[in-house]
Amino acid sequence: MEIASNGGSLMRLLKSLFVTALVVASVSTYSATVLARSDGSVADATAASEARYVDAFLGQDHGALMALFSEDARFVDQTFGDLLVGHAAVSDMERAVIGMTDADATRLLDHFTAADGSHGVTIWQWVGTNAYGSAFDMPVVVIHEYVDGSITSESLYYADRFAYEELTSG
After folding, report:
1. DSSP state, 118?
2. Which of 26, 97, 108, 152 has the fewest C-beta atoms lying within 10 Å of its C-beta?
């Protein structure tokens, strides 16, 4: 009976475990050789950029968020299959995402960067209201690729098998 009364907590725990497994699988693709070569300076810059990304996202500061992206940035939504290319297209998507986000309820669960500074990862519990007025609450993994200190690619992975329905239904 205790599991039934804590069903929501159990589901959140299971989702968090799924997110962790997804991140480990994604990050494990980077070779140990590359990670071992870091001198720290590029990785430190990437970590600082990721911190600015978190602050801008939670502060719903679209201008500060977009200042982190390169002119030829890509946005890849792994659930919806969206691929957007170019600063303007990514900017429109980020504006829509910020518009759906409840910044007071959304929580950063974890974040880290590759030792060589090539990638940053943030794990969120994303809470908000979709374009149809329905609430959603789901774990999301965001992986950024960096070149010369700018985000060149942002890939989203929803750790909720009902993400499509939650984001597209009224």
Report:
1. S
2. 108
Delineate the domains of the chain, giving CATH numbers in brackets. 2-168 (3.10.450.50)
Q: 3-state class of 36 per DSSP?
A: helix
Give the separation between CA 51 and CA 155, rounded to whole angstroms: 17
Q: In the chain, which ranges are continuous DSSP H helix?
A: 2-5, 7-27, 32-36, 41-58, 62-66, 87-100, 163-168
Total residues belonging to the chain = 170
Q: What is the pLDDT of residues 150-162, one digit of tens each?
A: 999 999 998 877 8
Of the candidates 113, 170, 102, 111, the one whose C-alpha atom is nearest the C-alpha of residue 138 is 102
Cβ–Cβ under 8 Å, residues 24 and 145: no
Q: How confident is the model over 9-60, as pLDDT tens digits?
A: 545 544 554 554 444 444 443 333 233 334 557 888 898 999 999 999 999 9
**Contact in structure between 134 and 170 (CB atoms under 8 Å):** yes
Name the residue among 111, 119, 155, 122 with its Cα closest to residue 35. Answer: 119
